[in-house]
Amino acid sequence: MIAGQPPFHAASGGELMAAILRDPVARFPDDAAPIALERAVFRCLEKNRDARFQSAKDLGFALKMPLAVQAPSTSHRPVSPATPTVAVLPFHNLSSDAESEMFADGVTEDVIAHLAKIRSLGVISRTSVASFKTRDQSLREIGKRLAASTIVDGSVRRSGNRVRIVAELVDAEHDRHLWAETYDRDLVDIFAIQTDVALHIADALRAELSADERSRIRKAPTLDLEAYQLYMRGRQYVAKHTESSLRQGIDYFERATERDRDFALAYVGVARTYAEAVVSGNLAIRPEAAFRVAKEAVDKALAIDDRLGDAHAIVASSCSRPISIGPEPSASSSSRFS
To answer: Distance of alpha carbon 55 from its chain centroid, rounded?
Structure first.
Protein backbone atom coordinates (compact mmCIF):
# COMPACT_ATOMS: atom_id res chain seq x y z
CA MET A 1 0.00 0.00 0.00
CA ILE A 2 2.85 2.37 0.76
CA ALA A 3 4.51 1.80 -2.62
CA GLY A 4 1.23 1.73 -4.54
CA GLN A 5 2.19 -1.54 -6.25
CA PRO A 6 2.74 -5.24 -5.42
CA PRO A 7 6.24 -6.26 -4.28
CA PHE A 8 6.28 -9.09 -6.86
CA HIS A 9 4.78 -9.42 -10.33
CA ALA A 10 3.84 -12.69 -12.05
CA ALA A 11 1.38 -14.04 -14.61
CA SER A 12 0.11 -16.96 -12.50
CA GLY A 13 -0.09 -18.31 -8.99
CA GLY A 14 2.81 -20.71 -9.51
CA GLU A 15 5.03 -18.01 -10.99
CA LEU A 16 4.15 -15.71 -8.09
CA MET A 17 5.16 -18.33 -5.53
CA ALA A 18 8.47 -18.81 -7.35
CA ALA A 19 9.03 -15.03 -7.53
CA ILE A 20 8.46 -14.65 -3.78
CA LEU A 21 11.03 -17.35 -3.07
CA ARG A 22 13.60 -16.22 -5.61
CA ASP A 23 13.28 -12.65 -6.89
CA PRO A 24 14.24 -9.32 -5.32
CA VAL A 25 11.43 -7.05 -4.16
CA ALA A 26 10.29 -4.46 -6.70
CA ARG A 27 11.67 -1.00 -6.01
CA PHE A 28 9.47 1.80 -4.74
CA PRO A 29 8.52 4.41 -7.35
CA ASP A 30 10.47 7.66 -7.04
CA ASP A 31 9.54 9.68 -3.93
CA ALA A 32 6.85 7.16 -2.92
CA ALA A 33 7.94 7.17 0.73
CA PRO A 34 10.60 8.55 3.07
CA ILE A 35 13.79 6.52 2.91
CA ALA A 36 13.56 5.29 6.53
CA LEU A 37 10.06 3.93 5.93
CA GLU A 38 11.15 2.27 2.71
CA ARG A 39 14.08 0.62 4.46
CA ALA A 40 11.76 -0.71 7.14
CA VAL A 41 9.45 -2.21 4.51
CA PHE A 42 12.34 -3.92 2.71
CA ARG A 43 13.65 -5.32 5.97
CA CYS A 44 10.22 -6.80 6.68
CA LEU A 45 10.40 -8.50 3.27
CA GLU A 46 13.89 -9.99 3.67
CA LYS A 47 13.96 -13.62 2.45
CA ASN A 48 16.28 -14.59 5.31
CA ARG A 49 14.10 -14.53 8.44
CA ASP A 50 17.11 -13.72 10.62
CA ALA A 51 17.55 -10.46 8.70
CA ARG A 52 13.97 -9.32 9.43
CA PHE A 53 12.86 -7.42 12.54
CA GLN A 54 12.88 -9.85 15.45
CA SER A 55 10.03 -8.15 17.29
CA ALA A 56 7.29 -5.55 16.87
CA LYS A 57 9.31 -3.37 19.27
CA ASP A 58 12.26 -3.37 16.86
CA LEU A 59 9.97 -2.44 13.99
CA GLY A 60 8.43 0.34 16.05
CA PHE A 61 11.86 1.73 16.84
CA ALA A 62 12.76 1.75 13.14
CA LEU A 63 9.56 3.61 12.28
CA LYS A 64 10.39 6.31 14.84
CA MET A 65 13.52 7.24 12.89
CA PRO A 66 13.33 10.57 11.04
CA LEU A 67 10.91 10.14 8.15
CA ALA A 68 11.27 13.55 6.57
CA VAL A 69 14.15 12.61 4.28
CA GLN A 70 12.86 11.86 0.81
CA ALA A 71 13.99 8.69 -0.95
CA PRO A 72 16.58 9.24 -3.68
CA SER A 73 15.91 8.36 -7.31
CA THR A 74 15.61 4.62 -7.94
CA SER A 75 18.25 4.90 -10.64
CA HIS A 76 20.80 5.47 -7.85
CA ARG A 77 19.39 3.09 -5.23
CA PRO A 78 19.74 -0.72 -5.32
CA VAL A 79 17.13 -2.93 -3.70
CA SER A 80 19.82 -4.39 -1.49
CA PRO A 81 23.31 -2.85 -1.54
CA ALA A 82 24.91 -6.23 -0.79
CA THR A 83 23.08 -8.16 -3.50
CA PRO A 84 23.78 -7.62 -7.22
CA THR A 85 20.57 -7.94 -9.21
CA VAL A 86 20.67 -9.56 -12.66
CA ALA A 87 18.10 -9.46 -15.46
CA VAL A 88 18.56 -12.00 -18.26
CA LEU A 89 16.85 -10.57 -21.33
CA PRO A 90 15.35 -13.01 -23.86
CA PHE A 91 18.16 -14.14 -26.14
CA HIS A 92 17.82 -12.98 -29.77
CA ASN A 93 17.04 -15.77 -32.21
CA LEU A 94 19.23 -15.15 -35.28
CA SER A 95 17.75 -18.09 -37.21
CA SER A 96 14.48 -17.89 -39.11
CA ASP A 97 12.60 -21.03 -38.00
CA ALA A 98 10.19 -21.39 -35.10
CA GLU A 99 12.17 -24.30 -33.66
CA SER A 100 15.18 -22.03 -33.18
CA GLU A 101 12.97 -19.40 -31.53
CA MET A 102 11.85 -22.00 -29.05
CA PHE A 103 15.45 -23.05 -28.50
CA ALA A 104 16.53 -19.44 -27.82
CA ASP A 105 13.73 -19.04 -25.27
CA GLY A 106 14.86 -22.26 -23.62
CA VAL A 107 18.43 -21.00 -23.33
CA THR A 108 17.15 -17.80 -21.68
CA GLU A 109 15.05 -19.67 -19.13
CA ASP A 110 17.81 -22.12 -18.29
CA VAL A 111 20.40 -19.37 -17.72
CA ILE A 112 17.88 -17.67 -15.40
CA ALA A 113 17.33 -20.96 -13.57
CA HIS A 114 21.09 -21.48 -13.14
CA LEU A 115 21.64 -17.98 -11.76
CA ALA A 116 18.69 -18.36 -9.40
CA LYS A 117 20.58 -21.16 -7.65
CA ILE A 118 23.13 -18.61 -6.41
CA ARG A 119 22.03 -17.21 -3.05
CA SER A 120 24.23 -14.11 -3.29
CA LEU A 121 22.55 -12.92 -6.51
CA GLY A 122 19.12 -11.40 -7.03
CA VAL A 123 17.63 -12.67 -10.32
CA ILE A 124 14.65 -11.09 -12.09
CA SER A 125 12.00 -13.66 -13.03
CA ARG A 126 11.44 -14.75 -16.63
CA THR A 127 7.91 -13.33 -16.63
CA SER A 128 9.26 -9.88 -15.79
CA VAL A 129 11.87 -9.88 -18.57
CA ALA A 130 9.58 -11.38 -21.23
CA SER A 131 8.10 -8.00 -22.18
CA PHE A 132 11.56 -6.70 -23.17
CA LYS A 133 12.10 -9.25 -25.92
CA THR A 134 11.87 -6.59 -28.65
CA ARG A 135 14.40 -4.26 -26.95
CA ASP A 136 12.26 -1.14 -27.48
CA GLN A 137 14.27 0.69 -24.80
CA SER A 138 17.94 1.13 -24.00
CA LEU A 139 19.60 -1.29 -21.60
CA ARG A 140 19.87 1.54 -19.07
CA GLU A 141 16.10 2.14 -19.26
CA ILE A 142 15.37 -1.58 -19.07
CA GLY A 143 17.62 -1.90 -16.03
CA LYS A 144 15.82 0.92 -14.29
CA ARG A 145 12.39 -0.53 -15.02
CA LEU A 146 13.40 -3.98 -13.82
CA ALA A 147 15.36 -2.66 -10.83
CA ALA A 148 18.37 -4.58 -12.14
CA SER A 149 21.94 -3.40 -11.65
CA THR A 150 23.25 -5.68 -14.40
CA ILE A 151 21.77 -7.14 -17.58
CA VAL A 152 22.62 -10.29 -19.52
CA ASP A 153 22.06 -9.82 -23.25
CA GLY A 154 22.75 -12.37 -25.94
CA SER A 155 21.88 -14.14 -29.17
CA VAL A 156 21.45 -17.70 -30.42
CA ARG A 157 22.00 -19.07 -33.92
CA ARG A 158 21.23 -22.72 -34.49
CA SER A 159 22.12 -24.64 -37.65
CA GLY A 160 21.62 -28.37 -37.72
CA ASN A 161 23.62 -29.87 -34.88
CA ARG A 162 25.67 -26.71 -34.31
CA VAL A 163 24.81 -23.76 -32.12
CA ARG A 164 26.43 -20.36 -31.76
CA ILE A 165 25.64 -18.42 -28.58
CA VAL A 166 26.88 -14.93 -27.78
CA ALA A 167 26.39 -13.71 -24.21
CA GLU A 168 27.41 -10.46 -22.53
CA LEU A 169 27.01 -8.95 -19.08
CA VAL A 170 26.39 -5.19 -18.97
CA ASP A 171 26.42 -2.69 -16.10
CA ALA A 172 22.91 -1.29 -16.67
CA GLU A 173 23.48 2.09 -15.02
CA HIS A 174 26.71 2.96 -16.83
CA ASP A 175 26.12 0.88 -20.00
CA ARG A 176 29.54 -0.74 -19.49
CA HIS A 177 30.50 -4.27 -20.55
CA LEU A 178 31.58 -6.47 -17.65
CA TRP A 179 32.02 -9.76 -19.51
CA ALA A 180 31.35 -11.25 -22.96
CA GLU A 181 31.89 -14.61 -24.60
CA THR A 182 31.07 -16.40 -27.87
CA TYR A 183 30.38 -20.15 -27.91
CA ASP A 184 30.49 -22.08 -31.20
CA ARG A 185 29.79 -25.68 -30.25
CA ASP A 186 27.88 -28.85 -31.06
CA LEU A 187 24.30 -28.87 -29.84
CA VAL A 188 25.09 -31.58 -27.31
CA ASP A 189 27.25 -29.02 -25.47
CA ILE A 190 24.27 -26.77 -24.68
CA PHE A 191 24.25 -27.65 -20.97
CA ALA A 192 27.96 -26.94 -20.64
CA ILE A 193 27.45 -23.56 -22.34
CA GLN A 194 24.63 -22.55 -20.01
CA THR A 195 26.70 -23.58 -17.00
CA ASP A 196 29.70 -21.62 -18.24
CA VAL A 197 27.60 -18.48 -18.80
CA ALA A 198 26.16 -18.64 -15.27
CA LEU A 199 29.54 -19.21 -13.61
CA HIS A 200 31.24 -16.41 -15.57
CA ILE A 201 28.44 -14.00 -14.62
CA ALA A 202 28.83 -14.97 -10.97
CA ASP A 203 32.59 -14.43 -11.19
CA ALA A 204 32.17 -11.05 -12.94
CA LEU A 205 29.84 -9.90 -10.15
CA ARG A 206 32.10 -11.38 -7.46
CA ALA A 207 29.22 -13.43 -6.14
CA GLU A 208 30.12 -15.97 -3.50
CA LEU A 209 29.34 -19.54 -4.54
CA SER A 210 29.42 -22.51 -2.22
CA ALA A 211 30.72 -25.85 -3.45
CA ASP A 212 27.14 -27.12 -3.37
CA GLU A 213 25.92 -24.23 -5.54
CA ARG A 214 28.66 -24.85 -8.10
CA SER A 215 27.77 -28.53 -8.15
CA ARG A 216 24.07 -27.80 -8.71
CA ILE A 217 24.83 -25.36 -11.52
CA ARG A 218 27.12 -27.89 -13.25
CA LYS A 219 24.54 -30.68 -13.03
CA ALA A 220 22.82 -31.21 -16.41
CA PRO A 221 19.02 -31.54 -16.17
CA THR A 222 19.17 -34.57 -18.50
CA LEU A 223 21.76 -36.41 -20.59
CA ASP A 224 19.19 -37.06 -23.33
CA LEU A 225 19.18 -34.16 -25.81
CA GLU A 226 15.94 -35.36 -27.42
CA ALA A 227 14.21 -35.39 -24.02
CA TYR A 228 15.44 -31.84 -23.44
CA GLN A 229 14.05 -30.65 -26.79
CA LEU A 230 10.70 -32.30 -26.05
CA TYR A 231 10.68 -30.48 -22.72
CA MET A 232 11.36 -27.13 -24.41
CA ARG A 233 8.55 -27.73 -26.91
CA GLY A 234 6.29 -28.43 -23.95
CA ARG A 235 7.21 -25.11 -22.35
CA GLN A 236 6.54 -23.28 -25.61
CA TYR A 237 3.04 -24.75 -25.95
CA VAL A 238 2.13 -24.25 -22.29
CA ALA A 239 3.04 -20.55 -22.58
CA LYS A 240 0.16 -20.06 -25.06
CA HIS A 241 -2.39 -20.81 -22.29
CA THR A 242 -5.12 -22.33 -24.48
CA GLU A 243 -6.69 -25.69 -23.74
CA SER A 244 -5.27 -27.31 -26.87
CA SER A 245 -1.79 -25.87 -26.28
CA LEU A 246 -1.81 -26.98 -22.63
CA ARG A 247 -2.71 -30.51 -23.68
CA GLN A 248 0.06 -30.50 -26.27
CA GLY A 249 2.50 -29.14 -23.70
CA ILE A 250 1.62 -31.88 -21.21
CA ASP A 251 2.06 -34.48 -23.95
CA TYR A 252 5.56 -33.18 -24.72
CA PHE A 253 6.50 -33.15 -21.03
CA GLU A 254 5.30 -36.73 -20.62
CA ARG A 255 7.17 -37.86 -23.73
CA ALA A 256 10.29 -36.27 -22.24
CA THR A 257 9.86 -38.27 -19.02
CA GLU A 258 9.37 -41.44 -21.05
CA ARG A 259 12.77 -40.89 -22.68
CA ASP A 260 14.45 -40.01 -19.38
CA ARG A 261 12.76 -41.22 -16.20
CA ASP A 262 15.15 -39.05 -14.14
CA PHE A 263 14.32 -35.78 -15.91
CA ALA A 264 12.98 -33.87 -12.90
CA LEU A 265 12.19 -30.62 -14.76
CA ALA A 266 9.87 -32.45 -17.15
CA TYR A 267 7.85 -33.75 -14.17
CA VAL A 268 7.79 -30.17 -12.84
CA GLY A 269 6.39 -29.07 -16.22
CA VAL A 270 3.51 -31.55 -15.90
CA ALA A 271 2.83 -30.56 -12.29
CA ARG A 272 2.92 -26.81 -12.93
CA THR A 273 0.61 -27.06 -15.95
CA TYR A 274 -2.05 -28.97 -14.03
CA ALA A 275 -1.74 -26.85 -10.89
CA GLU A 276 -1.99 -23.55 -12.77
CA ALA A 277 -4.85 -24.86 -14.93
CA VAL A 278 -6.97 -25.03 -11.78
CA VAL A 279 -6.42 -21.31 -11.21
CA SER A 280 -6.80 -20.24 -14.85
CA GLY A 281 -9.62 -22.61 -15.75
CA ASN A 282 -7.98 -23.21 -19.14
CA LEU A 283 -8.28 -26.99 -18.87
CA ALA A 284 -11.57 -28.84 -18.68
CA ILE A 285 -10.61 -30.91 -15.66
CA ARG A 286 -11.93 -31.22 -12.11
CA PRO A 287 -9.69 -29.40 -9.58
CA GLU A 288 -9.27 -32.47 -7.38
CA ALA A 289 -8.17 -34.56 -10.38
CA ALA A 290 -5.76 -31.85 -11.57
CA PHE A 291 -4.19 -31.49 -8.12
CA ARG A 292 -3.84 -35.25 -7.80
CA VAL A 293 -1.96 -35.53 -11.09
CA ALA A 294 0.14 -32.46 -10.19
CA LYS A 295 1.04 -33.99 -6.81
CA GLU A 296 2.02 -37.28 -8.42
CA ALA A 297 4.31 -35.47 -10.89
CA VAL A 298 5.88 -33.09 -8.36
CA ASP A 299 6.54 -35.98 -5.96
CA LYS A 300 8.50 -37.72 -8.71
CA ALA A 301 10.45 -34.52 -9.39
CA LEU A 302 11.36 -34.06 -5.72
CA ALA A 303 12.33 -37.72 -5.39
CA ILE A 304 14.91 -37.06 -8.12
CA ASP A 305 16.01 -33.62 -6.87
CA ASP A 306 14.58 -32.44 -3.55
CA ARG A 307 16.09 -28.94 -3.98
CA LEU A 308 14.10 -27.85 -7.04
CA GLY A 309 12.66 -24.44 -6.10
CA ASP A 310 9.88 -24.55 -8.70
CA ALA A 311 8.76 -27.96 -7.43
CA HIS A 312 8.52 -26.71 -3.82
CA ALA A 313 6.61 -23.63 -5.04
CA ILE A 314 4.04 -25.90 -6.71
CA VAL A 315 3.64 -27.89 -3.50
CA ALA A 316 3.14 -24.71 -1.49
CA SER A 317 0.64 -23.32 -4.01
CA SER A 318 -1.37 -26.55 -4.07
CA CYS A 319 -1.38 -26.89 -0.27
CA SER A 320 -2.81 -23.38 0.04
CA ARG A 321 -6.01 -24.52 -1.71
CA PRO A 322 -7.93 -27.06 0.40
CA ILE A 323 -9.80 -29.50 -1.84
CA SER A 324 -11.81 -32.64 -1.50
CA ILE A 325 -10.05 -35.54 -3.20
CA GLY A 326 -12.39 -37.69 -5.25
CA PRO A 327 -11.87 -41.00 -7.05
CA GLU A 328 -8.49 -41.78 -8.56
CA PRO A 329 -8.15 -40.49 -12.14
CA SER A 330 -7.37 -42.89 -14.94
CA ALA A 331 -3.71 -43.54 -15.66
CA SER A 332 -3.99 -42.51 -19.30
CA SER A 333 -3.32 -38.89 -20.14
CA SER A 334 -6.36 -38.51 -22.37
CA SER A 335 -8.76 -39.57 -19.62
CA ARG A 336 -7.47 -37.01 -17.13
CA PHE A 337 -9.64 -34.39 -18.77
CA SER A 338 -13.26 -34.49 -17.62
So the answer is: 32
Contact 193, 165 (CB under 8 A): yes
Number of residues that make up the chain:
338
The total of other beta-carbon atoms located within 10 Å of residue 19's CB is 23
Q: How many CA atoms lie within 13 A of 270 on its CB side?
A: 25
Beta partners for residue 166, in sequence order: 155, 182
- Cβ atoms 85, 124 nearer than 8 A: yes
> pLDDT tens digits for 162-204?
999 999 999 998 889 999 999 999 999 999 999 999 999 999 9
Q: Are residues 31 and 66 in the same domain?
A: yes
Among 56, 75, 94, the domain-final residue is 75
Residue 322 has pLDDT above 80, yes or no: no
User: pLDDT by residue (tens digit) across 241-269?
Assistant: 899 999 999 999 999 999 999 999 999 99
The one-letter amino acid at 83: T
Distances (CA, A) of 13 to 27, 292, 321: 21, 17, 11
Do 301 and 259 contact (CB within 8 A), yes or no? no
**CATH number of the domain encompassing residue 118:** 3.40.50.10070
d(CA 168, CA 312) in angstroms, rounded, equals 31
